[in-house]
Specification:
heterodimer; A: elongated; B: alpha/beta
């Protein structure tokens, strides 16, 4: 149940970005999660709903983009999607496989409303 | 002042934990420079993390300087169990399911300042959340006790994927429980092919010597790598290695 602590970290980053851009409001936060991100999307969403109301951008939406586990074989360089957590290259059978995507929680982008520059001048 | 606004999309595309991972890498480097091998010990509750540390402390019997930071949601019972043997500090999370670097650093500040060769961080008993949090350790070691069942590696892939070694604990109970060491190790190696494995019983002192020898060897490798990078960077390093390097010049 560490989704809450991860969500706090994420919302601090969004808050920092919003301030940096002098945002008036935040519309949408896009986050990528995968099978080895170590987070449960449903729990992440409920942590977001609990915590976003405590921020300065309480009307923001969270969009979770779920991606598969993308891997590459270090021996034959084949790239493939791993379905079953068995880290064996389907092409050459090697167990030396690196993860390219799907093992972290990534903040992709933040949509926000910022003051129109011509107005601000 | 109510001006007009426009929509903009700020692209980030970064790991949410990137900042924390960077801090953990810096802490790891400090440990390396101090010559302290740091081990993050993870498992389910009751797998025998504290017992393994007691057994290691008894085995070394002062020949290796070890310190322990022990995490629990409540109580300092684990610290009390270890206090007769080694310097220890309890980290109480007050409900949190995993340790984070900041908590470890607070504990470090309280731990008696000795030149530790081995610093163990006994994580909260949990095979899920601790997998995502780098504590600045050199080695992550996962314990799996024979009473938990040999199907755990496949059920908790992230923990086994991110670990360097697997300790199958409570081996003295193998005659009484349906647990196949071979199946557990095989399953774990499908997830992490480079995983080393040890079979131990802390109550019967089985496998403890091998486990401790592995840690001594890992520390030796860490020091060798550190010293050679110091020599390559032209820094003065203590000990015979630097003298040898200087003599060769």
């Amino acid at each position: 149940m560490h989704e809450e602590s991860l969500m706090r970290t994420l919302l601090r980053q969004v808050d920092h970005l919003a301030r940096q851009h002098q945002a008036v409001s935040v519309d949408e936060i896009q986050v990528e999660v995968g099978p080895l991100s170590g987070v449960e999307p449903i729990l992440l969403m409920s942590a977001f709903e609990r915590l976003v109301v405590l921020t300065n951008f309480e009307t923001a939406r969270l969009v979770l983009r779920e991606v598969p586990l993308e891997c590459r074989c270090r021996m034959c360089f084949a790239e493939f999607v791993l379905e079953n957590f068995r880290f064996i290259c389907p092409q050459c059978g090697s167990g030396s496989v690196e993860i390219l995507r799907g093992d972290s929680m990534r903040l992709l982008n933040v949509s926000m409303q910022i003051p129109d520059r011509q107005e601000a001048c | 002042m109510q001006g007009t606004t426009r929509s903009t999309v700020v692209e980030v595309n970064a790991d949410v934990l990137a900042g924390k991972k960077k801090l953990a890498a810096e802490q790891r480097d400090r440990f390396t420079q101090q010559g302290t091998l740091v081990i993050n010990l993870v498992s389910s509750p009751g797998a025998g993390k504290t017992s393994l540390l007691q057994a290691a402390a008894k085995y070394w019997n002062g020949r290796a300087r070890m310190g322990v930071l022990v995490g629990d949601i409540a109580t300092d019972r684990d610290a009390e169990r270890l206090r007769p043997f080694v310097p220890v500090e309890q980290l109480t999370t007050g409900g949190a399911c995993h340790l984070e670097l900041s908590l470890v650093q607070q504990g470090l500040a309280r731990l008696s300042p000795e030149p530790y060769e081995f610093l163990f961080i006994e994580n909260i008993g949990n095979l899920v959340c601790p997998a995502s949090h780098d504590l600045g350790e050199h080695l992550r070691i996962v314990l799996l006790s024979t009473t938990e069942g040999d199907d755990k590696p496949a059920k908790y892939p992230k923990m086994f994927r991110t670990s360097h070694a697997l300790v199958i604990s409570k081996s003295d109970l193998l005659p009484y429980v349906p647990f196949s060491v071979e199946a557990a190790v095989q399953d774990a190696r499908l997830i992490q092919p480079e995983l080393l494995s040890f079979v131990t019983s802390s109550t019967h002192d089985t496998g403890i010597e091998d486990f401790c020898a592995f840690l001594e060897n890992a520390r030796h490798k860490m020091l060798t790598a550190r010293d050679s990078s110091r020599v390559l960077n032209g820094e003065q390093s203590p000990g015979s290695k630097s003298r040898l390097a200087a003599g060769e010049m």
